[in-house]
Amino acid sequence: MGRLRPAVLLIAIGLLQSSILADDKASSLSECIQRNRYSSDQLIFSDTDKSTVDFLTISEVSRRTLEADVFECFPKLEMFTISGNGLSEIDGDAFGSVPSLRILNMSRNDLNSLFDHGKPVLEGLTLLNRLDLSSNQFRMFNIGSFKGLSNLTELIVADNELEQIYGRTFEDLINLQALDMSQNRIDYLPSAVFSINTKLKIITLRENRMKYLSAKAFQGLYELEELDLSANGIHILPKTIFRPLHKLKVLLLNGNNLDFLQESIFCSLQSLEFMNIADNHVVKLQQSIFKPLTNLKLFNAHGNKLSSIPDDLFQYNTLLQDVSFSDNHFVSFPEKAIATLTQFKSLDLSNNLLSSAIKIELSNLTHVSLYLSGNNLTDIQLLRNVIHLTMSNNKLEQLSSDKFNTNIHSIHLDHNKIVTVALDAFKKLSQLEDLNLSFNSIGDLQPAHLSGLLSLKYLDLTNINLRKLPEKIFSSQNLLQTLRIGDNMLEEIPESTFLAMEDLQYLSLENNRIRNLSCDLFKSNYRLNSLYLHDNQLEHIPDGFFDGLDSLQMLALHNNRIWKINDRVLNGLRNVEKIGLHNNNIYNLSPNAFNELLLLKVIHLYDNRIRDLAPNLFENNILLEEVVLRNNLISAIPQATFRYLTKLQILDLSGNKITKVDAQTFQQCGALRELWLGGNEIRTINEGTLRSQKNLEMLDLSQNKISDIRADTFQNLVNLKRLYLGNNRIKVLPSTHLKSLINLRVLSVFNNNLESLHNDQFLNNEALEELFLDGNEISEISTNAFNGLSRLRILYLSKNKLTEIQEGVFGALAALTELKLDRNSLVELPAELLHQQKALEFLCLSENKLSSIPEDLIHNNINLKILEINDNQLTSIPEFFFCPALQLTELYLENNLIEDLPEQIFNKNSRLKILNIAGNALLQFDILKTGFAENLQILDIQGNQLQMVQIPRNLIKLFAQDNHIETVFMEQSSYHQLEVLILSGNSLQKVDKLFKLNRLKSMDLSRNKLNELDISRVYKLPHLVDLNVSRSEVQSLTGVLHKEHHSLVSLDLTGNMIAHFDYFVSIFFTSLLKLGVTGNPFVNEDFYDNMELLRSIDALQENFELF
């Protein structure tokens, strides 16, 4: 087995005293480290009072085995992490030298066993308390895997491939208290599987595949307090399954397929406080089902199919505080369902079918928040003791008198259809603090509407069709802090509108039609902090308009028609920190426009018509941190414009017409971190221009006319991390020009005229992580061109003129995760081209001229997740080519010449989720025999010569058009996940089986040979939105439509031979918006007359379309 040696990054915390080599212990440790050949930059020491390592993290492991001597220098280690590596094996004696280990994290590796030649590798860790094995490849744990771990209290094995657990799996973990097995493939829990682990308090089984559980699955778990069974496929729960769980406090059953809960199922859960059955299919709750739950406090039944509950369902749950029945089918709710609950606080009935005014009796001892959004309510019933009411997204058309409890604090009625509001609708609500009427059609508000709202602090009148504000409409709102009146049709604001609001802090008037503003509009609002006037039609701001607004920090004036900012207009904004003036028509900007803005930090002036910048424009704004002037007409920058901006961090001058930048322009901007000069007409960077930018981290010079870079241009940019030079005319980029950029992380030189890369091109840029060289003329890359780039993660060489690549070109790029070589002219690749790229996750070789591919090309790319070899000339794939790619999730092989793709070639690729093999010459492909059939989500096999296609149960999208398919075979299963099925252009005659795919949303059967279509089978597809059977030789529509289908939006029957049309199609498919009928014999004058008749009686959707 390979040794774990220098290619390791070690982080040690709690390591030594501050002088690491001062005493004997430190010296001894140092010698051990040197003896084991760990370099100094692989160890990070903290300043503590200890003399030994107690916390150790290892990453960037280049070998797949954890050897015993890795801990030689750390005998008293207590916490060890080796997460996110390619670790697949552990030496049997690896942990023998660290018996004091208490916390062990080996997550995100490739482990599949805890044995080494029959020996349990963890056996000696008798003090271990916490073990994290999540995100590995365990399919099962053999008996004895956890031998010796009698003190383990927490075990995490989430996100593995566990399919089964047995009664003896965890038999050695007698003190286990928390077990996380979420995100695995467990499909069944056998009897007494945890009976030995009697101290368990928390079990998490979220996101597995369990449909059924043994009635005695939790036998012996008398101490269990939390149980998470959410997001499985559970259809039914045995009525005795929870009997042993007397101390259970939290039960999560959400996200399953439960449609029924047996009446006595919770009979032993007297301690239960929180229950979640959301997102199931529960239709009914038995009258006494919650009788034993005397400590229940929170109950969530969101997203089920409940249409009613018994009146006394909660009569024994006297501690109940929060209940959610949102997203169900309630038409009404029992008036006294929560009447006796003295501690009740919240009821959520959002997104149901409530249509009449709801009346709910509440205890006099409680104050309740009531959520009724997303129903069909047309009226409000007086609800006493409701202190918060949300009725958004209903069908309220008017607000009349006495509809609200006088003690109510918050009312949200946004997104209704309210047209009329009685003058006294809110008259008695003197305690109301929060009122939201936004997105209605009220149109008219008078002072009397708001006169009783004396405590109002928040008022939202956004988008209510206001055309005018009456004088003193807000005269009673002395305490108002936030006012939103945006998205209306206001053309003017009366001078007295905000006179009474001395506490106003936030005001939005955006997106109206305001052309003018009174100079005294805000004279009383001295506490105003944020003012939004953007998206109006303001052309002019009067002088002195902002006088007195000493608290204003944020001012938004963008997207108006302002053409001028003079000396006086912004005076008074002494504390403003951010101003938005972008997207106006400003071309006249006074040299003294910002003189009074002494605290200004951010100014946005982009997308205007500014041509000139005054030399002293920002002379008094010495606190400026961000100036954005992009997309103006600036052609020159006076040397003194930014002279005093020593705190400036971001300067954006991109998208102008600047031809040159003088050496003195940024001389005083020593704090600058980002400088954007892209999209100008700069031909060269003058000497000394960037001399003082030692703190610069980002420089954008892209999309200019630069053809030559001076040798000293980047000389002082030692902190530069991102350099963008794309879309210029650069032919050469000598390494000497980049040698000062020792901290450079990103270098973009795409779309230039580079012809070659020479040896040691980036030798001094060791910190480089992303390199973009695509879209050049590169035809040659020297063997050592990338020397020194050991940290490079992303390399783009697309769209060049490469015909070959030498074997050692990428040898130095050990950290590479993303490599693009597409759109070149590569004919062949060396077998060992990528052997050093063990971290590679994405490889793109598409659109070349490859006729074959070496079998060992990706042999060492064990972390490869995405592989693109499409649009080449491949005729076959080597038999063992994909074997090393255990992590592969996406594979693109489309548009090649492949005739045969043996299923066994994918035996090791169980994680594949997307496969595209379209546009080849395949005669057969049996997906169910592949190693990824269980996990594949998207399959594209269109444009081959297949006669049969299989549908695995977990496939979500299948594109199989333009083959010769006669048969569709579906994997035997009680459920299928398929949502999109494209089978157009085949030879199908029978499609009955396809209507068993009850999750389908879109199905295309066009251009087949169907003869007839049983339209009633659509009822079996309740989620179907789009059905296309055009040009499929259909002669008749059979089946009887007898009930409504609520999902179908588009039905295409064009180009068939249908003689008779069932008009119930238009009636029973209640969501139908598009119906294709042209080219059928039944389409005649009578047909159109009948359709018009249906439209006239509102049997069709308002925007229904025939084609």
From TrEMBL:
Q: Which UniProt keywords apply?
A: Leucine-rich repeat, Repeat
Q: Under what name is this protein listed?
A: Uncharacterized protein
Entry keyword annotation includes Repeat: yes
Question: Do the record's keywords include Acyltransferase?
Answer: no
Pfam families for this protein? LRR_4, LRR_5, LRR_8
Under PANTHER family, the record lists: IG(IMMUNOGLOBULIN) AND LRR(LEUCINE RICH REPEAT) DOMAINS, LEUCINE RICH REPEAT CONTAINING 53
Q: What SMART domains would the database entry show? A: LRR_BAC, LRR_SD22, LRR_TYP
InterPro entries in UniProt: Leu-rich_rpt (IPR001611), Leu-rich_rpt_4 (IPR025875), Leu-rich_rpt_typical-subtyp (IPR003591), LRR_5 (IPR026906), LRR_dom_sf (IPR032675)
